Amino acid sequence: MAKPSIPKGTRDFLPHVMVRRNFIFDTIKKSFIKYGYLPIETPAMEKTQTLMGKYGDEGDKLIFKILRSGDFMSKPADEDLQNRDSVQVIKKISEKALRYDLTVPFARFVVQNQNELAFPFKRYQIQTVWRADRPQKSRYQEFFQCDADVVGSDSLLYEVELVQLFDEVLSNLGLTDFTIKINNRKILSGIAEITGESDRIIDITVAIDKLDKIGKEGVIKELIAKGITEKAIDIITPLFQINGDNASVIAQMQELLKDSEIGLKGIEELAFVFKAIEALGLQKAKFEFDVTLARGLNYYTGAIFEVKANNVNIGSICGGGRYDDLTGVFGLKGLSGVGISFGADRIYDVLEELELFPSTSKEATQLLLINFGEDEIESLLLLNQLRNAGVNTELYPSKAKLKKQMTYADKKGIPYVVFLGEDEMKSGVFKLKHMESGTQKELTIDALIVELNPASSK
What we know:
Elements: H1 15-34, E1 38-39, E2 45-47, H2 48-51, H3 56-61, E3 65-67, H4 78-82, H5 86-93, E4 94-98, H6 103-112, E5 121-130, E6 142-151, H7 157-172, E7 178-184, H8 185-194, H9 201-208, H10 211-225, H11 230-236, H12 246-256, H13 261-280, E8 286-289, E9 303-309, E10 316-323, E11 337-343, H14 344-353, E12 367-371, H15 376-388, E13 393-395, H16 402-412, E14 416-420, H17 422-427, E15 429-434, E16 440-444, H18 445-452
Parallel strand pairs: 1-5, 7-8, 12-13, 12-14
Antiparallel strand pairs: 2-4, 3-4, 5-6, 6-11, 7-9, 9-10, 10-11, 14-15, 15-16
Helix pairs in contact: 1-7, 1-14, 7-13, 8-13, 9-10, 12-13
């Protein structure tokens, strides 16, 4: 029998990892709820036609298709099979796909359930997505996204709120050095307009979005390969050197885009967001206008966001943006939306590398009762008392050697043990041992509870 394994780009999660992951999810969820977002879920599978064409050519290639049940090979035409026309063959053998992100399914959800929703509708969603990307460090084929979106309003107050959410959540997770980058697709449209390449906006933005990965020369090479004119490239490349504080960059871009109405509109929108954030202040985040930020997804139309941890080489850990008519492709026109996504898996890698995870967790076992085979009913009563007082407690199930029980506690990461010997059971005074330091205290059950759960005394 072959050794069991899992597909590349997927992972098993051991209990100690899940405890840490849940710390991330719970922290994010707490802020989502605080800001008025409501939870929803959508199916892991969507109809292929729901997803295709929403992410650009590169994104569409990364969508996992699901084969039809039954004799799916009877569906394609012989001509398509002989010509190896994969596009036509896939249409015949697959009608469902795993979701690529949570935003497009959310747009479908809004249209399908519009009569049940109050607009503006604020939702959060924490679920798995799948992408047929090449697995590498911090890039997986199966991963979680934690999204917050508002649909049904074009108010820039929501852009401000989402910047605050980025800052609050990441600060609460313990990050102290991270940057929220913002741009506006209208500005990118303005750049394409002044270059005379308005109809090539997607080609230009896809290339610019790779600046961090392939550098200036790589972007220029890709623009040439896509047929962008030399004149247009001469106008675009100075963008890579624009620097200074946000006010300075905005002023430089206003001058560059003075002949583009849509470009100036994008500048105006960004200026409002910067003014509001300056008035409100942020906890830990740096907030920066990045004129080369493009975000490759085709459905963005306004503000676009990206967040990076500055002292970790992992890439973006969050992203998002404004989409003015994503619901329109499903039949509901004129419903603007804006949203952000926290990449839980990349955030996990950042927190692990920086050693920022809490040493203890509300989910983990705090205390193991060492079983010496004394009155087991009395032991169970003590166990219940501790649990009811809010102390996460286990009783070792049998009278095993002390070394075996201590090894169990150590391997499971249980920080404290209590010895339930005959003397302890009679006197009601128990030895509490801290596993890491080896120190011991003798405490009554009430004092023990206060020691492990100080809130119980209030």
